[in-house]
Amino acid sequence: MRIFEIIADFFSKNSTTSWHMPSIGAPDIIEMLIIAFLLYKVMAWIRDTRAWALFKGLIFVLVFYGLAALLDMQTIVWLAGKAFTYGLIAFFVVFQPELRKALEQLGQRRFFSWFNFSDFQKNNADRYTDRTISEIVRACFDMGKVKTGALICIEREIVLGEYERTGIAVDGRVSSQLLINIFEKNTPLHDGAVIVRGDRVVAATCYFPLSENLGLSKELGTRHRAAVGISELNDSMTIVVSEETGSVSIAERGVLSRDLTPEELKDRITANQKRFSEESRFSKLKRRIAGNANENAEENGKESDQ
Asked: With the C-alpha atoms ordered 136, 139, 145, 147, is the resulting torsion angle positive or negative?
């Protein structure tokens, strides 16, 4: 097979050729740091857009293309080369709004603001607590009793910054009173969806794309189709309270589960919490430092009292 021929040829060449370590100077180190920094910023930008899912798919395609090239699968390599040619054009067409916004932000921000690493710190934020789960469940069924429509999207790993920008910033701690007040009829924020990140409501009146799934029931309204639509594009969990019947539903991965009970809704959100509750090393270190600081402060306070 060709892959073994390539490996054998590599070792045969290197067995007769002496290795010389290239010299690395200060300009080379600076160049590597600049490239690493730019790659970091590009990854941080991709993480907050629809391009993140596309990027992961592209990694898979590149690995498959590399294996096909090593195994000398000429037809697959030829097809992949043609697909990449047109795919690059399609990328700029599909993600034209995101690219334009990124260039606008590049021209508006100051240089030193690029060294702000809050993009990844935001993604490492703690997942929501049991209190948040209870407040969401209580709000949904309280609104269902009086047939107040609601659309609550719980963010997972993929950041919903693109949809967050379509709404109005709230940044309030999740509570049943807050959610009920947002979706109360004839209030400024009742139209659209709420995005929940961790234990906070980050935005309201957000607009989601409607699902084009022809298999959905014709009885479903705009809220349910928006919930399914957003779940088809990312890994979020979206809760819908029907304005007509007061029933509570959940949309995940393009699948709508209808007429849930309070126990079923709590179990679904709890399962989501456990699945995505792995803490980052940065969050652990931050809490550990804060805990040590509090302990030291308490000990110092006791000593001063004595």
From this structure: negative
Nearest-5° angle of CA 275, CA 279, CA 281?
A: 150
In this structure, are residues 138 and 176 in contact, taking their beta carbons and an 8 Å threshold? Answer: yes
CA distance 159 to 147: 30
pTM exceeds 0.85: no
Asked whether 180 and 141 are in contact (CB, 8 A), the reply is no
Give the per-residue SS3 of 40-85: HHHHHHHHCCCHHHHHHHHHHHHHHHHHHHHCCCHHHHHHHHHHHH
User: Each residue of 281-299: pLDDT tens digit?
Assistant: 444 454 555 555 555 555 5
Quick one: 70 and 101 in the same domain?
Answer: yes
The pLDDT tens digits for 234-256 are 889 999 999 999 999 999 988 99
Q: Quick one: which of 239, 179, 219 has its CA closest to 203? A: 179
* Structural domain contains residue 41: yes
Better pLDDT: 66 or 154: 154
CB contact at 8 A, 238 and 151: yes
Could you tell me if 83 and 57 are in contact, meaning their C-beta atoms sit under 8 angstroms apart?
Answer: no
In a shared domain, residues 265 and 205: yes
Does residue 294 lie within any of the structural domains? no
Residue predicted with more confidence, 194 or 54: 194
249 lies in the same domain as 154: yes
Confidence at residue 292, expressed as pLDDT on a 0 to 100 scale: 57
Q: Can you give the residue range of the structural domain that contains 137?
A: 130-275
The CATH number of the domain where 146 resides is what?
Answer: 3.40.1700.10
How far, CA to CA in Å, does 125 sit from each of 73, 122, 139, 200, 226? 45, 5, 24, 11, 26
Rounded CA gap, 306 and 300, in Å?
Answer: 10
In a domain, 118, yes or no: no
CA 57 – CA 78 distance, rounded (Å):
19
Q: Looking at the 3D structure of the chain, how many domains does it have? A: 2
